[in-house]
Amino acid sequence: MRQTSIDDLVRFSMELLGLTLTMGAIMVIAAFYAFDGFGLPATRSTLLFCLLALFGCALPLQIYAAARIAGLRRQNERLHLAATRDGLTQVLNRTAFKRAAEAEIGATGRRRARDAVHHTLLIIDADHFKKINDRLGHHVGDEALTAIAATLRRSVRQDDLVGRLGGEEFAILLRDAGLEEARIVAERLRRAIERLEVGPADRRTRLSVSAGGVAFRGPVAFQALYKMADANLYQAKRTGRNRVELTRLGALARGATIEGKPVERHLREAKDARRIAAR
């Protein structure tokens, strides 16, 4: 059931309760006057008792309905969280992040050019994550992902978007943040994560991440932004890991080649190459 439907039910229940209380009070008062001239106290008392009994039954039924609807609302909220949040890290899942980012990018594109603001998409990937899983176990890998996600949330503003795209890859959409501001944020979260340690006491392992990002302004396809940010992430991995590589939209394309390869070819190969480099 959609949240709006539950809200409508709550409002209807409260309105019905108010109507029941009002009508019950009117009927009780009317009964006193309607039967007063008949001189039949017993009949009047019986009718009043029936009206009061009906009124008394309606009130708990309305209370039950309100409680039931409140339960449905809580259930709806839990279902919404399950559908939009990553179960392990509690940040947005891939689908929810992409949908929210596209909505924000679209809103940016609808603004007039002089009023448009810069945003930055960051792709963050845990360094040597496969080694952590292989050497210390998947439970330590989960601990690492949870710690990284918590640090990412603390390192950005409340209205920025944080999501897990899958595996050890996270994404952040920094709202109203150009290249230089995004660089400051990315370096801050990188330094915060490199102070984290996971694993048993005798085998503690320090974490680190690499980040790639692209600053943009105006309407841009999310997939195009992702490819540019992912290519920059690969550059950060290739040049030593635990690094941040950011560019403005279009800057990468003007570079023509990366390591002698055409940019388009590099973008197509970035994901596979980064996966190999992470092993």
From TrEMBL:
A cellular component annotation (GO) from this entry: plasma membrane
Listed under GO biological process in this entry are: cell adhesion involved in single-species biofilm formation; negative regulation of bacterial-type flagellum-dependent cell motility
User: Any transmembrane segments, and where?
Assistant: 12-34, 46-67
Q: What is its EC number?
A: 2.7.7.65
GGDEF domain residues? 117-249
What keyword terms does UniProt attach to this protein?
Membrane, Transmembrane, Transmembrane helix
Q: Which InterPro entries match?
A: Diguanylate_Cyclase, GGDEF_dom, Nucleotide_cyclase, Rev_trsase/Diguanyl_cyclase
Q: Which Gene3D superfamilies is this protein grouped with?
A: 3.30.70.270
Q: Recall the GO molecular function terms of this protein's record.
A: diguanylate cyclase activity
Q: What class of enzyme is it?
A: transferase
What is this protein called in UniProt? diguanylate cyclase
Q: Name one Pfam family in it.
A: GGDEF
Q: Which reaction does it catalyse?
A: 2 GTP = 3',3'-c-di-GMP + 2 diphosphate
